[in-house]
Structure formats: structure tokens, C-alpha cells
From TrEMBL:
<keyword id="KW-0235">DNA replication</keyword>
<dbReference type="InterPro" id="IPR015199">
    <property type="entry name" value="DNA_pol_III_delta_C"/>
</dbReference>
<dbReference type="GO" id="GO:0008408">
    <property type="term" value="F:3'-5' exonuclease activity"/>
</dbReference>
<dbReference type="GO" id="GO:0003887">
    <property type="term" value="F:DNA-directed DNA polymerase activity"/>
</dbReference>
<keyword id="KW-0239">DNA-directed DNA polymerase</keyword>
<dbReference type="Pfam" id="PF13177">
    <property type="entry name" value="DNA_pol3_delta2"/>
</dbReference>
<protein>
    <recommendedName>
        <fullName>DNA polymerase III subunit delta'</fullName>
        <ecNumber>2.7.7.7</ecNumber>
    </recommendedName>
</protein>
<keyword id="KW-0808">Transferase</keyword>
<keyword id="KW-0548">Nucleotidyltransferase</keyword>
<dbReference type="InterPro" id="IPR027417">
    <property type="entry name" value="P-loop_NTPase"/>
</dbReference>
<feature type="domain" description="DNA polymerase III delta subunit C-terminal">
    <location>
        <begin position="243"/>
        <end position="321"/>
    </location>
</feature>
<dbReference type="InterPro" id="IPR004622">
    <property type="entry name" value="DNA_pol_HolB"/>
</dbReference>
<dbReference type="InterPro" id="IPR050238">
    <property type="entry name" value="DNA_Rep/Repair_Clamp_Loader"/>
</dbReference>
<dbReference type="GO" id="GO:0006261">
    <property type="term" value="P:DNA-templated DNA replication"/>
</dbReference>
<dbReference type="GO" id="GO:0009360">
    <property type="term" value="C:DNA polymerase III complex"/>
</dbReference>
<dbReference type="GO" id="GO:0003677">
    <property type="term" value="F:DNA binding"/>
</dbReference>
<dbReference type="Pfam" id="PF09115">
    <property type="entry name" value="DNApol3-delta_C"/>
</dbReference>
Amino acid sequence: MSFNNILGQEAAKQLLQNAMRREAVSHAYLFSGPAGAGQLETAMTFAKALFCTESRDDACGQCLECRKVEHGNHPDLTMIAPDGASIKIDQIRELQRIFSYRSEKNNPKVYIIDHADKMTVQAANSLLKFLEEPQVPAVAILIAENGQALLPTIQSRSQTVPFRALNPEMMEQALVNEGYPLALVRCAVQLASGLEGCRKILNENWFAEIRNVMLQLGKESMNRTGTAMITASQKVFKSGLSEHLDTLFSLFHLWFKDMIHVQYGRQDRLVFIDQAEFISGHASARSTAQWVSCMDLAAECQKKLRYNVNGQLCLEQLLMGLGGTQA
């Protein structure tokens, strides 16, 4: 992995590489932005580049230092992630203990704190002291979805590197190039944050299954009553897909949105591109306002599900509601 392999985030990469070229690397960086935008991959690549013996501003991936990072056994790189729900003071104290020893070579020691916004107050105060007075040359990389959630004093002592949500079209092209089916990819990039999140659901067998169930129910909702729809929905629970109802509701939302796209001549925006013919033939069956009502209904049922309302009741409410929105 080099900076060239990281999707998007050109401003972040340029900032880091320029610092290396000028030999003006800061003692602390705050990678702030939405989950899945590539912060951890960029942090690992930056660490490799700082250690790399072959390149001045990137990771060659071939030298011994780069390979140690890739294999997770570089002695001068320390990773910290939440222990349970938070990063605790003992983890920061252990970091300080590790950093009391000098590095093996002339490298700075590097530490990456993932989900840094989940530090306890005690851990954050302990880190602040460490940021101000490291015992050896060190580079801190703090990763947080919301950098503003960190102590203002930590923010002021770190150089913010902003990350932006990846463009869905950019992710789609990368995932299709990796061999994932386009029809599934189109859905995944609307549901997951970043490439890793997309790959995770694309590699799950249930994802294609729940999509097929949604397509069947979505099509049947066009010409069947709510009661018949509920009978059809039983397969969701019989097939063991009930734990993925949240995804099912999200897919319904995208399905109804596709109907509106067709009504406004925006076929190029369709998510369910393999169903373009069906969608084009049925988009006019309901008014735009009715499709918007369907979207609202899916969002409402999803919200109830997240508030621990019984999943079967949530799905039945959606299907009964769809039967009542027909023109």
C-alpha cells in the first residue's frame, strides 16, 4: 500500500507528502472525517512512509521497514483502539511506557489512536501531557469521526487533516474492478461507508439474499393487498434473514427512490440497474407524492426497528402501508 493506492483524499495525501518532502513532519496529526473515508489506511501508509528507507515521501512496500509495518511487527509503531466502548487511561499509560525506550534506528516512534474521540477524560488528559512532552521523537496520528469531540487542547496541539466521504461512483468503479457484481455494488455503495465497509457486506452471503427478498416483495407490493404481502413476508423470518431487517428497509427506501428517478428521467441514477425495465414500466403506477410516502414509511419502520420494536411488526406495518398507498 502506497499513497497512490488510497482512493480519493488528494488534499490529505498532498499535505502529508509535502511535510515529508520538506522534512517538516508535525509531532501530531488529527485525521478527522466520516468513517470509512480511508483514515486508517492513510495512517498506516504515512507510518510506513516515515520508516521507509527507499522513498522520501511515500512507502515503497518492498524495504524491510515497510514489510515490518505490513506484517504488524514494526517495533516503532504502536496501534491503540477502544478497549470495549472506550480508550482507557491504562492504554495511554502503556503507550507512555513503550515510548520510554528509544527507537531501533533513527526513526521517530509512531502511534496511531483509532477512534480517538472515544478516549475517557482521564485518558485524554494523560495523552495531552504525552503530546506536549514525549520522551523520544514521536509522531501521533489520531483518527476521529468528529475531531471536535476531542479536548480543545489536543486539537490545538495537532495538525488537522480533513477527510471527506468517498464519492459513490469512485467506490463503485474500484469495487467492480475488484470483481464484485455491479448490481450488488450499486446497492453497497449506498449503504456502507468507505471501501472496507462495502467489501464487508459484499462478502456476506445474506446481502444478495436480502436484496432478492426486497425485490420480490417490492414487485409484489405493486399488485397485491397488504394481507397477502404479510404472508409473503414470512419467508424473511423462515430463511433466517430477520437479523438484517435494517438493511431490508434501507433497500426498500432505495427502491422507491429509483421509481422517482424514472419519473424525472434520471435513469442514470438508478441503484437497481438490473431491474431498470421493471422500474421503468411501473414507476407511473403511483404519483411522486405516493412514492415519497413509501420512502417515509420505510424510514419510519426502520426507526422503530432501531428503537427495538418487534421486527416482524415493523415489516408487517411497512407491507400493509404499501398496500394502502396504491393509486
